[in-house]
Design goal:
This protein has 267 residues and is of the alpha/beta class. The protein is built from 8 helices and 10 strands.
């Protein structure tokens, strides 16, 4: 049996195929399009092709993310909070807390022992704490987005970014560039600032145990290191953090598929 998890985020759409034995068969992602249904179909079809299986073998489709309701071929939808929590717990059974940092939102989650959500806080009012902020900042710094992590890690100092508003923070960055502040120092300052905002949310859920870091921003090594220095707890980071919610959706989809099969057998 195979289930599919599709995460339609504000920045990227991700699809993941999950086998009954717990093996991930394929992962795919693409920039999110205005037509969520089409975007979901495209990443799922690509994942099916990558896995080399017939489409008919996908028994259940679970969607999550911003566009989860718009997918016409879904079997069920779950919230981003639920999906990220289950995905992180599937990856790290020791995790007691989850920090999910995506393109627009940052979410701090406290887990129950079975990977379900006990408590959460999210900051969706300003993009300064999300990946979209880094995308725009890289543009102002005139460097590739994927180079920010390396620049941050190699920096000799951290240039503070004090504004909590994305627009004002971007103005700060432009001012720092005009003052010839080293780009690496600015990058580290951005990552430190984002880690500080994340810590504010984590304190609200009572962070006092192992923390799983997921979401697209967790690819940024500079941000991961900034979090590692601040959390004071074991930090768990997977190789593909941007697919955690898609994994969680696929795992939950697998559970539903098994339940449906069992009910059909009893019928």
């Amino acid at each position: 049996m195979i289930s599919a998890g599709i995460d339609l985020g504000s920045g990227f759409s991700k699809a993941l195929l999950y086998a009954e034995d717990g093996k991930v068969l394929a992962r795919t992602l693409a920039k999110t399009k205005a037509d969520f249904d089409k975007a979901a179909r495209e990443v799922l079809d690509e994942a099916i092709e990558k896995a080399g299986i017939p489409a008919s073998e996908v028994a259940y489709v679970c969607t999550t993310g911003l566009g989860r309701y718009a997918v016409s071929f879904r079997d069920i939808q779950v919230t981003e909070i639920t999906a990220a929590a289950r995905g992180a717990w599937t990856l790290f059974h020791d995790a007691q807390f989850v920090l999910d940092v995506g393109a627009q939102s940052t979410r701090a989650i406290r887990l129950r022992d079975n990977g379900k959500v006990k408590e959460f806080y999210t900051n969706e009012k300003c993009a300064a704490g999300g990946g979209a902020f880094l995308v725009r900042a890289a543009k102002y710094l005139e460097v590739p987005l994927d180079s920010l992590g390396k620049l941050s890690m190699e920096a000799k100092a951290s240039q503070a970014i004090s504004s909590v508003c994305a627009v004002l923070a971007e103005s700060e960055i432009i001012n720092h560039v005009s003052e010839n502040i080293p780009i690496g120092d600015i990058a580290r300052g951005m990552h430190d600032s984002m880690a500080d905002r994340s810590m504010g949310l984590l304190k609200k859920v009572g962070l006092n145990g192992p923390l799983a870091l997921v979401g697209g921003v967790a690819i940024q090594t500079g941000f991961v290191e900034a979090c590692r220095k601040k959390v004071g707890q074991p930090l768990l980071v997977t190789e593909h953090p941007q697919f955690a919610a898609a994994l969680g959706a696929a795992v939950l989809g697998m559970q539903r598929a098994k339940k449906r099969l069992a009910e059909a057998g009893r019928g």
